[in-house]
Amino acid sequence: MSARGYKTACEYQNFDSFGTIYCGCLHICIMAPHGNELPEGLKRVTPTLVVSMLRTEVSWDGFFRNIQASSPSGEAGETRPSTLLQGRVLSHSLDMAQKVVEDHLAVHTLIRAYQIRGHHVAQLDPLGILEADLDSFVPSDLITTIDKLGFYGLDESDLDRSFQLPSTTFIGGQDTTLPLREIIRRLETSYCGHIGVEFMFINNVDQCQWIRQKFESPGIMQFTNAEKRTLLARLIRSTRFEDFLARKWSSEKRFGLEGCEVLIPALKTIIDKSSAAGIDSVIMGMPHRGRLNVLANVIRKDLDQIFCQFDPKLEAADEGSGDVKYHLGMYHERINRETDKDITLSLMANPSHLEAVDPVVQGKAKAEQFYRGDTQGKKVMSILMHGDAAFAGQGVVYETFHLSELPSYTTHGTIHVVVNNQIGFTTDPRVARSSPYPTDVARVVNAPIFHVNADDPEAVMYVCRVAAEWRSTFNKDVVIDLVSYRRFGHNEMDEPMFTQPLMYKQIRRQEHVLKKYSDKLIAEGVVTLQEFEEEVAKYDKICEEAYTSSKDEKISHIRHWLDSPWPDFFTAEGEPRSMSCLPTGLGEDVLQHIGQTASSVPLQDFKIHPGVSRILRGRADLVKNRQMDWALGEYMAFGSLLKDGIHVRLSGQDVERGTFSHRHHVLHDQEVDKRVCVPMNHLWENQAPYTVCNSSLSEYGVLGFELGFAMSNPNALILWEAQFGDFHNTAQCIIDQFISSGQAKWVRNNGIVLLLPHGMEGMGPEHSSARPERFLQMSKDDPDHFPEFSGDFEVQQLYDCNWIVVNCSTPANYCHVLRRQILLPFRKPVKCNIILTVFYLWFASLEFLIIFTPKSLLRHPDARSSFDDLAKGTKFKRLIPDEGHASQSPGQVKRVIFCTGKVYYELAKGRKQKNLERNVAIIRLEQISPFPFDLVREEADKYANAELVWCQEEHKNMGYYDYVRPRFLTVVANKKPIWYVGRDPAAAPATGNKSTHLNELKRFMDTAFNLSAFQERDL
């Protein structure tokens, strides 16, 4: 009651005693803190106070009255004792009864204290010099010495008294009573040995009871001799692998696993137990420490492939852009020898941003579950490995945990394994975190935490078994904290004695875990010394043979390190299926059908909001007139892909309605709570599913999740939308480390789409720019070289770039670029402003598309398209030329203004007002990167006598100018300049003053149409 009574506060109006204290209108949560003292001002609830409270309750009051009315044993023959004697007898009887109640309550409280805080005194540190919880203080309610019995009102004479055990413990086994001495011994065995269990903060009684049974039941942690021999063999492989690397490449950084070699048998135990429960696919993520060992002995990557990565002569072309070997991933299908079942293991590539891979792994696991129909996570699961400092310090860990039970993001339980070095790079944990344990972040989702001494392999294996069973039983996250040490420095070249002299003096004296465990098994007679030495020699020979084989120059190829292959997407020769860029237009019947569904409510008796009704009526009018706005253009893209069997998933903050109330893909019944309708899922009889889901208020975690989701299937359109484009700032790590360079580093296939609302509309510096300059700066095309391609220039250019940046200005072009995302024979990122599209070419079938989507253009009357713009035979326009009077008389044109996105409509309006439609041509670049050299050259040649201007609404040091200027000069062979028109350089993306914003806009608009503005400049 004291631990969880606050959960029922305000639910009981007339509940006396405990209920009055813990379940009233005052919330008291005192049992969860790690300390054992109550907050200042709160009195301890002692057994005496409990008895006092019980006597005020009717049923207990009757119990005490009966005691008072009865005579104690030996006095039954005395029929009429004197009043004084009777008072003494009754008082003595009452005191005896009260003592019995108090003592039993004290023992029950003692048991609970061990369950709650026993982990604080568990023997977790293999070095014996630090405390895993950063505190050597022993909670006063744990019986570590006899004198502490007084805390409970007990003394040494009570140790041999038997006490009734509560139903919330399993320490008695079949016994319901035990002597206090045995109770304490069993509690110390369960909670204060080499395993420390944190679970009493979980609010589910059944889950707590399940954990108690796993750790309290007498004799439950037993291993057969065969299991011990398997454990020893795995420990040999883990240890000898590191020893081999150290001998062969003593001067190379490898981030070895020395000090936590037990990680390998731990992971294999988790996989074995999960495989036996039905899991046949495991997606894993980890930092670099121990990665090569995991690849070799868990994933079972060929050793020669690993060893060849140490070759200093390895060409960059063979290893992508040259990412280090301890960042690479792997995908492998094999037989699990312990269960004789097929299993697929995937270790995701990860940069030095240690925890960045966490949401990526979760997204990939969720995608595999989705496409396999694994709605409970019984076939596919994820395992995440962490370092202690990163687990406590990096915010993406928290963001990922908070996705764990959201309906559209849950993977139905992840097993987290923390390699707890008890140190960061050189930073002592006492100055690296504020929480007692590095794993405390997991408490926010009620994940049980199992701390274990990594130098006790059998304790580690047992914890791993329980963790796998927990995940299989409850489909919830669980954390294993492997309290270990780092035998060498941060890497093998580092000197740790500079900063941790005492720790590393102890580490140098520390006996290796393999030596300790092998000696133990030899002493037990489980193996002989000869058998142990033969097993060591056997693995050493395997390593030597692989080392010899690794010298074959033909053996290395980056494709061997691919962590997410798409085998059905390529030809037998490994090339994409086709290199033709198909038209992306649609038939009139398809457009009409999608439009009518988008403007209706498919369900009967479904009452929608009047405002939504007006929006749907507006859509219906557009469809009737064969027109579309931005929302309808998006509907056309999604709906047509669903018809072709392409799964579409749109995720992000408030995406169901849309930040600007334009989308409304999920309709809500105004009279029935939680009743919703998704019209997109009612388009076709046998269509693919459409998933649209509001996310948590996270960018880093959710974008990483969707990136992982997109890795699983090339024939799916996966989109993430930021609430405002500049919010991608907090997800920059995913963009920089995984998206822009993922293919070059890891041959990673992906086709995610980013929708980033962008536009300078007087909303201030926080809600204006999606920072297109950042994406353009990472584009790899050469600004000084005019590309010469044979065949299809457009497709070849897309194939050779690392991504595509597009800024669409019409709904039709937005629809085309989304459809092109799927129809291209490869996958690259795409970025759009209004749709600034960024394609990432992934040697697969989906570009990474970053779309800088519009805000004001969502409802702009001129930003509409005709159904004819989406007719069959039409396709995405990389550049939209001027189609007015200027194009009919190009020789009369004095100025050609190139622009992109929303500013076009302001320029077109200004040109019309100034009556310059014959003198000024306005050309829109829809695709910014890769730069459409061929189309820009055509326009420059067409208006050969005109001066060229680049106009943008962003500040000069932002936006597109620095990217497009050198490319324009390459197009015209430096024969004429490209003038800049726009806002002056600034530090902030936009002004926060509306008047200043309008003045800036007027100033650069006037400049854009002042035909003499540049004539006197020094060229």
UniProtKB/TrEMBL annotation:
A molecular function GO annotation: metal ion binding
Domain (Transketolase-like pyrimidine-binding): residue spans on this chain: 628-832
Cellular compartment(s): Mitochondrion; Nucleus
One Pfam assignment: Transket_pyr
Listed InterPro entries: 2oxoglutarate_DH_E1, DH_E1, KGD_C_sf, ODO-1/KGD_C, THDP-binding, Transketolase-like_Pyr-bd
Similarity-based family: Belongs to the alpha-ketoglutarate dehydrogenase family.
Listed NCBIfam families: 2oxo_dh_E1, PRK09404.1, PRK12270.1
Protein's name according to its UniProt entry: 2-oxoglutarate dehydrogenase complex component E1
Lineage of producing organism: Eukaryota, Metazoa, Chordata, Craniata, Vertebrata
Gene (name only): OGDHL
